Each structure stands twice: as C-alpha cells, then as structure tokens.
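Hey, quick one: can you model this chain's 3D structure?
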Amino acid sequence: MTLLSYYLIFTQINRKGKAGKINYEIDGISIVICAKNEYHNLKNNLSKFYNQEQVNYEIVVVNDCSTDQTADFLDNEIKNNDLLKVLHLTNHDNSNLKGKRYALQKGVELAKYNYVALTDADCFPAGNFWLKNLALQFNNEIKIVLGYSPYVKRGGFLNKLIQIETTYTALQYLSFAKIGKPYMGVGRNMAYEKSLLTDDIFLHSNKSLSGDDDLVVDLLANNRNTSIVLNEDSFVYSLPEISFKNWIFQKTRHYGAAKHYSLNKKISVGLFNGANIFFYSLLVYLFVFQFSYKLVISLYLLKFIFFVFLNYKFLQKIKQQKLIYTLFFFDIIYFFLLLLLHTKSLFSLDGWKYKNR
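Sure thing. Here's the predicted structure for all 357 residues.
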C-alpha cells in the first residue's frame, strides 16, 4: 500500500497547474555556471547557451580556482561574446562555505537580472527556448522554478542505472513540489528570484559539501512560491558518468545532503526507497526460504504493472518509455545498490568537484 500511495502521488505531476498571470514580465534571467577544472566541458557546451530566444539574458561563469585551461578559454571567449561575464576566483577568501557555495554566491552577486537560472558546465539546454520556459513560470507568487535534467542515453549497465536513478529522483521531487511539498531540486536546471539567495541562505544550507541545490530548496520552497516546468524544450541535458567508481562517489556525495533534511521530509522521501527495499527483501526471502516461486513472480509483476500503468504518461513526457524494459530487469538491482549508496554517504567526502571532467 505504501508503494501504491507513492505511485498515486507521482501521477500528480500530470495535473495542470494554475495559470500564471499573462501580463507578468521579467526583466531578464542571468544564467550562473560554476566551473572548477571544466575546460573541456565549457569548450563543448558553453556555446549551446548563446542562442536563447524571447528573453533577455546573460551568462555568468565563475571559474572556481581551476588549474586547467579554464581561465584561458573563458578569457578568449569573453572577447567575442557580449552575453558573457566571467569571474575568476583564486581563493575563497577564508570563506567557511562548503562545496561550490562560495562560487555560487559570487556568481549570484555578479548577476545583473532579478532572476537567476542555475546549471553546470557539463550541461547543455534542449534548445533555444529553455530560458523562455523557465521565465514563463514566474509571477508575483512563484519565486522558484524546478526543471528536469536528464542524462544522455548510452549503452551499458551503468547508464541503465543512471537512467533509473534520474527518473525516480525526478518522480519524487517534481511530484512532491506539485502537491505543495517541495524539498529539493536539481542544480543542473532550476531558477530563483535572485533576492531569495541571500548570504544567510547560503550559510544556513552550509551543512554538507553537496546540497547547494537540495538544502537551499528545502529552506526556501513552499506550496505557494514553487513551480515545476516539464516540457521537452525546458530540459537541460548532462553527459552521464562512464566510470562506475566516479558515479558511486558522485551519488554518495549527493545523498550525503539528505541527512540534513527536516524530519518530515526525511520520512516523505525515505519511505519510498525503504518500501521498495522492504518489498524486494521480502521477495528474496520468499524465493530463498519459502520456495514460493509463483508468489514471487506474481508480486513482482503486480508491482511492475501498477508502476507502468500509473506513471506511463510521465515516462512519455520525459522521453523514457523504453525505460520500462530496463526497470523490469534492473529495478531490484537498483534499490539494493541504493541502500549501499545511502550507507556509504554517512562517511565524509572532500571537495565539491569529484574529478576533472
């Protein structure tokens, strides 16, 4: 029943939201990108942000103490593009902010528009109307917009796990935002009214190396000021990990922020993962100790059918219909791996950039 309740909550993503004020206009949006040793990603992706249409914008890139060719690339790039602003950080000026918060704080300070869109150097928008789709969500009440950021599909076992994890994460944070209980966003694709991102907010979210997106949303978002955007033009894509070791490191760093959620939000988020792990543990017990093969198969199929039936429309929206086949074979593997990842996340990790990409 717990899993079915979550599946029903997930369907709320498909519910139409309240129409925004048609005459509400914003002055523009500042795209803020923090980059640490991101020369290759900036070289491949930055130009894809240059042709946004139907909205005024600028691009603020904060070079956070990079030791590769990031600084040289940005200095050459800014000569030919009036949209671009660059801030080079050589140290953190004795700041106590963890992870990339200091770079993000400085990027927001440099932004000239009243709204900021956050993304990463290894990301690129689906097209030229990404910012327009974010901008259309803002009105006198909506101050935070949560978007969807898929990973590029590739072959292999790791990519299948990445696609499952990204889909389940999106189902949870987007559906909970839709029912008025936002608790996190994905820093690759979200936007704020700039006035919300005060120095105090960065300090109050300064509980872990990760969580500059999760914990800030947890502090600021509520049922009145948050909206989601979920059409294909609003997507921001990212290249997936190709190293299993690096993906494990990345995920455990991200999950480390979850332990700082409020108790209610820990329960809301944790129950879904816990219910899945309990369900599959029960199946393993029935299979190994009770030899109830028909019961195990029947329960597995019932869970799978309920999930697909109730969430197929969402999978269509995010272009993940083919994930159904992956889920059928890999779902049980994913949730036991998730248990290991959350256990591993209890250990501290160093640095906001886990590798030079």
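One thing worth noting: The chain has twelve helices and nine strands.
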